[in-house]
TrEMBL record:
<comment type="similarity">
    <text>Belongs to the carbon-nitrogen hydrolase superfamily. NIT1/NIT2 family.</text>
</comment>
<dbReference type="InterPro" id="IPR001110">
    <property type="entry name" value="UPF0012_CS"/>
</dbReference>
<dbReference type="Pfam" id="PF00795">
    <property type="entry name" value="CN_hydrolase"/>
</dbReference>
<feature type="domain" description="CN hydrolase">
    <location>
        <begin position="9"/>
        <end position="249"/>
    </location>
</feature>
<dbReference type="InterPro" id="IPR003010">
    <property type="entry name" value="C-N_Hydrolase"/>
</dbReference>
<dbReference type="InterPro" id="IPR036526">
    <property type="entry name" value="C-N_Hydrolase_sf"/>
</dbReference>
<protein>
    <submittedName>
        <fullName>Amidohydrolase</fullName>
    </submittedName>
</protein>
Length: 272
């Protein structure tokens, strides 16, 4: 299927509960929610899952729980995408790569079930000791969906680094996709940072957060779809739900034309 700028692109964010350290249960739960998304009255063009949905933050057991080379996830999500002819950003998973390290990895499938990208989180979150258990990715990643949507990848803590989103926008992204496990009490940071990334880069931001309690941490949901003018198109509550919204790429060009931020930049004056 080829995307035309005038055509709306429907997105469904799966704001799910994640069971700590239980990949089989999480896989089955995620599949149930994805089935709900594709059988809704308006079928989505893209499904997005939250961060580390296979294991949650069971970091002390992550080497034993992580999906070996992402094989399990790749197999069933690719089949789901092809069966339902839907693009899927399979959130991120704990993936044990062939180098023996575990990464926090986003995997993207198109409507044929072909893998179009994989991105491992480049900024590891010290507050949750990610850096002690996980290996950071080493590259930014962009991918194209339906031949016309230029998406950039960011995972959770990555949104605190405006350089990443700006670099993706400068490379041509008109959409930032953000799987997350972002907890209370930082809802204000979540909303503000995502909105800022949308406004400053004049791009859509689609952020899928998990819900529910894990240990003594409460994850608040509030998944967001924000347009390039910074308007919130859809926002989740604090319970499990599927949040839907539509992207219209023409709006990106419209906003960039109205306030020509990219033309007005003075990169030679910025230190780094
Ligand atoms: O930056 C934050 O406040 C939350 C980040 C986070 O929870 C994560 O990256 O997993």
């Amino acid at each position: 299927m080829t995307y035309h700028a005038a055509q709306p692109f429907r997105v469904a964010l799966i704001q799910a509960y994640i069971e700590l350290g239980n990949p089989p249960e999480n896989r089955s739960h995620m599949r149930t929610l994805m089935e709900q998304a594709v059988t809704a009255a308006q079928k989505p063009d893209l499904i997005v899952l939250p961060e580390m949905w296979n294991t949650g933050y069971a970091l002390d057991r992550i080497h034993e729980l992580a999906d070996k080379e992402g094989a399990e996830t790749r197999e069933w999500v690719a089949a789901f995408a092809a069966t339902h002819q839907v693009n899927v950003v399979a959130g991120s998973i704990a993936e044990k790569k062939s180098d023996g390290h575990v990464y926090n990895t986003m995997i993207v499938f198109d409507r044929t079930g072909a893998e179009v990208a994989s991105y491992s989180k480049i900024h590891l979150f010290r507050l949750m000791e990610e850096e002690k258990y996980l290996q950071p990715g080493e590259e930014k990643v962009m991918f194209t969906l339906d031949g016309g949507i230029q998406a950039g990848a960011a995972i959770c803590y990555d949104i605190r680094f405006p350089e990443l989103a700006r670099s993706l926008a400068l490379s041509g992204s008109n959409l930032l996709i953000v799987p997350a496990e972002w907890p209370h009490p930082r809802l204000h940071h979540w909303r503000t940072l995502l909105t800022a990334r949308a406004i400053e880069n004049q791009m859509y931001v689609m952020a899928c957060n998990r819900v529910g309690r894990s240990g003594d941490t409460d994850f608040f949901g509030h998944s967001l779809i924000i347009d390039p003018w910074g308007e919130v198109i859809a926002e989740g509550g604090e319970q499990e739900e599927i949040i839907t919204g539509t992207m219209e790429s023409a709006l990106v060009q419209d906003v960039r034309g109205r306030i020509p931020v990219f033309e007005d930049r003075r990169p030679s004056l910025y230190d780094r």
